[in-house]
Design brief:
Layout lengths: L1 H7 L9 H13 L4 E2 L11 E6 L6 E7 L11 E3 L2 E3 L3 H21 L6 E7 L10 H8 L6 E4 L7 E5 L1 E10 L5 E2 L10 H19 L3 E2 L3 E2 L1 E9 L5 E2 L2 E10 L5 H19 L2 E10 L2 E2 L5 H14 L5 E3 L5 H9 L3 E3 L4 E2 L7 E3 H20 L1
Parallel strand pairs: 3-6, 3-7, 7-19, 8-18
Antiparallel strand pairs: 1-2, 2-6, 4-5, 5-21, 8-17, 9-15, 9-16, 10-14, 11-12, 13-15, 20-21
Helix pairs in contact: 1-2, 1-3, 3-9, 4-8, 5-6, 7-9
The protein binds zinc ion (ZN).
Zinc ion binds next to helix 3.
Length: 372
Amino acid sequence: MRDTLALCSIYSRTCEAKGVLDRLAELLAVEGFSVERPDGGYPAAPAVAVRLSSGKPGPTIQFNGHLDTVHLPFVPPQHEGDRITGSGSCDMKGGTVAAIEALRVVRESGALTKGSILFTAHDLHEAPWGDGTQLEGLIRQGYCGDAVLIPEYLNGCIPTAGRGLAIWKLTIRRPGAPVHEVLRPQSEPSVIDAGAEMIARLRQYGTHLASKTDPVAGPETVFVGQAHSGVIYNQFPQEFVLEGTRRWLPGESRYLVEEEFRRLVQQVADRTRTTIDIRWQLVRDGFRLDTNHRFVKIFEENYTATSGKTLPYGPKAFCDDCNAFWSLADIPGITHGPNSGGAHTMEEWVSIDDMARVAQLYAATALQFCNG
Ligand SMILES: [Zn+2]
């Protein structure tokens, strides 16, 4: 609880999590953990990594959390009954502290006889400010276990499949200046007509994509969420801006998905004689979990042992860092954090009792996974 309050008292918007990562490194060093600070390609806020080793060969289980928070006004932490409230308490400083508690429990028990636990915490998680590249850098630098637990705020199921996601923005332009509609050069294309054609083309593309579907993850989609053009009713506008998302099935190549999208946009640009700028921002690749993996069985057993219930399998509705571990390193990952709420709002909270449950579950899972 003390650590959650300490971490939540530091404002750490995505891209600016250096302060909170430094504080966490300090807390862990004071407790005698040997702390590494790999930058994962983002030296402005080096990550935190701790390895708790048995000294014997064996599997490595990883606990991974992000300490950056979405860009909303800062809400200072407060302790009220079973809850800690404030920015980042739910997403996901509370969960990260539960994972650290599991690390302590295992160390104090002296029960780790094989393998090791790797704990990592980082920045650049929350889109659109972060692009997930610091974690990708960490994975490429070898900060990657044989299985990973991520204490994000969802815990109602074991997600077994999820779609990849990119956010796109198209800016359709014509060459001339803004002008009164009656004076417009007849040879100039209308960006609103081009925008309408783009929307129609995306709808058609979406129908085609819908046939590519997964029973758990759902269908591939292209979604339009925003369309803007024009300044006043009788000015011939210069720009049409369109924004939306593209989601694809696990196993599809993010590069091919992007290439196909760019090709489609270029066709519309050619046909309408406009230029179209494309901003394509990858959020995460797809995700799949092999439910027959030993790690999954161990997690399920320990979940039942600590809570007396079983967890169903389900979809991964939102992309998270498990997607990066699966797509880059092909390792199984389970997202499971404490009861909490208000993610991406100013009313975040996390349950202290449930943080204790998660710590116990993580410790037990780690011991069984590593000791074999
Ligand atoms: Zn999060």
